[in-house]
Structure formats: structure tokens, C-alpha cells
Design brief:
562 residues; Four Helix Bundle (Hemerythrin (Met), subunit A); 7-stranded mixed beta sheet
């Protein structure tokens, strides 16, 4: 079972006093196993978004400490800011990341709220997936009236808090209230305008957000239209799962549309951006860029890159880093301040800091291989040669997609380049995994063997590790062999001036297959389970023979064309 991980994204009502922000954020890291990912203050909103991640019990402990610290340092009676708010820690959503469902996460939200109410005396509401009644699902409903309306709201039976005191006392006057939830990953995203008009920004927000705008009898003002039940009729906006308002940001001297994208599987960041651009143009305004608050999943950035590449009729088979660069420039995410992917993309912030072979420079990799250690060895080198081979094939596909006069075939070459990137990424993973597999065998031999039980455990560990160390080079064989289809396609339909590149790619793939075959054979001979060993050897020999046949066929083609 995967380790359970949840993200917590508390928004505190302080964005100007760096000492207070630092002190509040610092308590997160006093809890073992919790990683502070991001602290994103906003001067005009006077609000800071803090992001951290860890196992559920540790995260809610860190959240409790943060809420407590914020209640000590922030006085809501003196707070002003552009963003709606009603508490020192205004909202505290918990977001499932891995190994845990939204419903399970809601249980932890309830535990956190009950403790906040009981121990800190802060009133609050559960919203979204943690809500205990339908009308409280929407954060805007829970926060209606904001801090200034709390005195009346807390004693209103319809809005009795889910936890904490149902009374406005001296303590609550300072801390305000809090909203706690379990929700899907939400992107807080602002779009910048070449205007200072909040009214114009709001008009665009109403065009786009799901809730749209109130309908008036004469279209834009005057008497509101109501239905048979006396409820206000609304004109829905263009996009689902989007909340939005317009505001003026004095810090930057511009108006923005501030969006919450509550389900990026329904409405992505790039679609929200493009629809905003269209609405702005219709209203005589121009979008100058955008701003991401907090962190974003890698997939959302890659999807944005792909979206804009398609619009440009360019190949999607480029590197991850290049796609992110396209996304940043297309969305104008660096319009107001530099955008650092290593600090804004959640997977990059969470990645293991230990250095892998594929992180080495070319010369360092060579020196590491040439040293006295037995790893990396032939298996890792075979995998890396396969990487180089399919990278050449992918290069030819990308070059072909750009050839003048071949514009109508860009998707054909893009598809091949994307396949090449997938093979390349699998082989890059296998470069390090071959060394890891070898190390598992060494670990097995180092196990104690002082009694019969330990001896059996040691034998089992060595056997399983040896099987794995045979399976990994077999995967290298499979992947390198399959990758040859990219080079074959480019030899047939790609740029003929790059014929030699595709040919070298084939030779590299062939070397990867043969080199990995050596490893399969040498490791399989030590496997005690001979049925397993014979099956993998039979399959490996078949791939080996097919590879030699393709090599001969391709060399004949290359010779005939040169």
C-alpha cells in the first residue's frame, strides 16, 4: 500500500509583516515528517498561502500548531486586505495527494476542527467535502459577511459554528473564525489586465466563473430577475468548476481576475487563461500575463505546454523542461515576478534530493563508471546507450515536424516524437534501476546467517534480488528493441538529410539490446528457480534475434540511400 500523504494549504490573514509570516510558517517544520513546500505572501491581499505535506496525523498536528501561532500573532480587528476573509487562519483545506481518499481526508479535517474549537476556542465551519450540511459546502457561503459580520453570524441559529464557541467574545474578536475542509487539488490563479478598473475585472470574472452574474430585467442594472420561488436568476458563466472575482492590486498597479480552479480535470489553467483573453478582448482590454499562487501539479503545467504547442502546430515530443518553458511564456507566469519551476511545481519540490546516475554530467558518469566500484556496470551503460539511440530518433522526428512544406504532417511527426520521449524516459529510469538491482543482491549477501532461519531468509532475499537483477536488463532489451520503431519510421518518412542520425540511433538501440542480453544471461544462471530462468532466457533470445534482423534490414536501407 502507498504511503498516505496529504497536503495542507492554510491561508493566513497576514501578507505584509515578514517576521510574523516567518514565525507562523516555521512551526510547521517543528513536526517530524512534515515538509514545508511553499510560503507565498501577497501584499495587497494581506494574505499568505502556506503549503506543506506529510502523513495525515503529522499534517494535522502541524496545521493545529500553525493555527495556534497565527491566532497569537494576528489581530483580525486591525486587518485590512483585498481578499475576502474572516479569520487569522482564514481557511485550512486538506488535500489528498496519495494513498488516501477525499472521504478519508475529510475525517482528518473533522478531527482538526474539533481540536481547534476545543483547545483554541476558535469558531469554525467545515466546507466542501468536509461539510456537514449542503449549504456549507460552498466556502463563499461559510465566509459570507466576512470578519465584520461575525458578531451577528455566530449567534444566528442557521449559522451556528460546526466547532468552537457560538458567541462573539474578546478572544474571537482577535482570532476571527476559520473554515476547514477536505477538497480536491485547487489552483489559485490570477490573470493580469492592462487596466486599473476593478469593475472591468469583475465583469470578466462574471463572464468566466461558473456562478456567472445576477440577471437584470434590462440586462445590466435595475430590477433583478427572480424565479417562481422568488430566488434570483443568474446568467451562468462560461466555465465549470471556476470561482472568480476582480480586484485592483496596488502593489503592481493593475487589476486582476482572481480565480479558484476547483477541479482542473474539468477546467484547466490554460483554458481559464484563454477564455479570459477572449473576454478581455471583447471588453477592449488586454491580458498581460498571469500569476500562480502556491503550487501546481506537474501534469497541469505539461498539459498547458501541450495545449499551446498544438495551437502553434508544433511537435509535442519535446522535453519536459521545454514544455514547462512554453507554458510559462504562453501564460505569462513571469509577468509580475520570476517563475521558478523548482519552487512552484509540487513534484519538483517533493523530489528526492539524492543524486542519481542520470543527474551526472557526461564526464562524471564516465568517471563513475571507470572507478573501482562494480556499479554502474554494463547494464546501466546498455540502458544509457539505448537512451542516446532513441533520442536521435526523436530528434529527427522533431526536425521533420519543422520542415518547410510539411506543415500538414506535423502531427504525424509529433506522435513519433512523443513515442520517442516515452521510450527515452523509460530507459533513463532503467539506467539507475539496473544499479539499484545489483545493490539489492549485495544487500542480500550482507544479511546475517548465524542460524537456520536467518540462512533461509538470506537465501530467499538473494534469489529474489537475482530475479529482479535479471528482469531489469530484460526490460532494457524490450524497451530498446521497441524504440527502434521510431528510427525505422524516420528512416522511411523523416528528413533524408538526417538519415545518418536515424541510422546511428538504430545502432545504439541494437547495442543496448545486446548489452542487456549479456546481463540477462549472466544473472539468470544464478537463479535457483529454473523455470523462471528458462522463460526469461527464451524471451530474451527472441528479442535478440529480432534486433539483429532489424539491424541488417536497416543497414541495407541506409546503404541504398547514401
Amino acid at each position: 500500500m502507498n504511503k498516505q500523504l496529504i497536503e495542507c494549504v492554510p491561508n493566513i490573514s497576514e501578507g505584509r509583516d515578514s517576521a510574523k509570516i516567518k514565525a507562523i510558517a516555521a512551526v510547521v517544520e517543528t513536526v517530524e515528517g512534515v515538509k514545508l513546500l511553499d510560503v507565498d505572501p501577497g501584499n495587497a491581499t494581506n494574505r499568505t498561502v502556506i503549503t506543506f505535506v506529510g502523513e495525515p496525523k503529522n499534517v494535522i498536528e502541524a496545521a493545529f500548531r500553525l493555527i495556534k501561532k497565527a491566532s497569537e500573532l494576528i489581530d483580525m480587528s486591525k486587518h485590512t486586505g483585498e481578499h475576502p476573509r474572516f479569520g487569522a487562519t482564514d481557511v485550512c483545506p486538506l488535500v489528498p495527494i496519495s494513498g488516501i481518499s477525499l472521504e478519508e481526508t475529510a475525517i482528518f479535517a473533522h478531527k482538526l476542527g474539533e481540536r481547534v474549537g476545543k483547545e483554541l476556542g476558535i469558531p469554525g465551519y467545515f466546507y466542501e467535502n468536509a461539510a456537514k450540511e449542503e449549504k456549507r459546502e460552498n466556502l463563499a457561503s461559510c465566509r459570507s459577511g466576512e470578519y465584520e459580520g461575525l458578531k451577528e453570524k455566530l449567534v444566528n441559529s442557521a449559522w451556528k459554528p460546526d466547532f468552537g464557541p457560538a458567541a462573539y467574545n474578546e478572544s474571537v474578536a482577535k482570532t476571527g473564525a476559520i473554515a476547514i475542509s477536505s477538497r480536491d487539488f485547487l489552483i489559485a490563479y490570477n490573470v493580469n489586465l492592462n487596466s486599473t478598473s476593478t469593475r472591468r475585472a469583475n465583469a470578466i470574472a462574471f463572464d468566466i466563473r461558473e456562478a456567472g452574474r445576477v440577471k437584470y430585467v434590462n440586462g445590466v442594472s435595475g430590477k433583478k430577475v427572480v424565479d417562481a420561488n422568488g430566488e434570483q436568476v443568474r446568467v451562468p458563466g462560461k466555465l465549470k468548476a471556476v470561482k472568480g472575482i476582480g480586484w485592483y492590486i496596488e502593489e503592481y498597479g493593475i487589476a486582476q481576475i482572481s480565480y479558484n480552479l476547483t477541479n482542473i480535470n474539468i477546467t484547466s489553467m490554460h483554458i481559464a487563461f484563454d477564455e479570459t483573453v477572449n473576454s478581455a478582448i471583447e471588453r477592449g482590454l488586454r491580458v498581460t500575463g498571469s500569476e500562480l499562487i502556491g503550487l501546481i501539479p506537474l501534469k497541469a503545467m505539461l498539459d498547458a505546454g501541450d495545449y499551446f504547442l498544438r495551437k502553434q502546430q508544433r511537435s509535442l515530443g519535446i522535453s519536459e523542461a521545454e514544455k514547462i518553458k512554453i507554458a510559462v511564456k504562453s501564460l505569462g507566469l513571469d509577468d509580475l515576478k520570476p517563475f521558478n519551476p523548482q519552487e512552484k511545481i509540487i513534484e519538483y519540490v517533493l523530489k528526492d534530493d539524492s543524486k542519481k546516475l542520470i543527474d551526472f554530467t557526461v564526464s562524471d558518469f564516465a568517471e563513475e563508471t571507470a572507478g573501482e566500484s562494480m556499479a554502474p556496470g554494463g547494464g546501466s551503460i546498455a540502458a544509457y546507450v539505448g537512451v542516446l539511440g532513441v533520442s536521435l530518433g526523436t530528434m529527427v522526428a522533431n526536425l521533420s515536424a519543422h520542415k518547410a512544406g510539411w506543415d500538414n504532417k506535423w502531427e504525424f511527426y509529433s506522435d513519433w516524437a512523443e513515442k520517442g520521449q516515452a521510450y527515452k524516459n523509460k530507459l533513463l529510469y532503467l539506467v539507475d534501476e539496473d544499479t539499484n538491482a545489483f545493490n539489492k543482491i549485495i544487500d542480500g549477501f550482507r544479511m546475517p546467517k548465524s542460524n537456520s532461519e536467518e540462512i533461509e531468509m538470506r537465501k530467499s532475499a538473494i534469489e529474489n534480488a537475482t530475479k529482479y537483477a535479471t528482469e531489469i536488463p530484460f526490460q532494457v532489451m524490450e524497451t530498446a528493441y521497441n524504440s527502434m520503431e521510431v528510427m525505422q519510421a524516420m528512416l522511411k518518412d523523416g528528413l533524408q538529410s538526417s538519415l545518418s542520425d536515424a541510422g546511428v540511433g538504430i545502432l545504439c538501440a541494437r547495442t543496448a539490446v545486446i548489452g542487456a542480453y549479456f546481463n540477462v544471461r549472466i544473472n539468470a544462471k544464478d537463479i535457483k528457480d529454473r523455470a523462471f530462468a528458462e522463460e526469461i532466457l527464451t524471451n530474451a533470445k527472441e528479442i535478440y534475434e529480432k534486433t539483429l534482423a532489424i539491424e541488417k534490414e536497416v543497414m541495407d536501407i541506409v546503404d541504398s540511400k547514401m
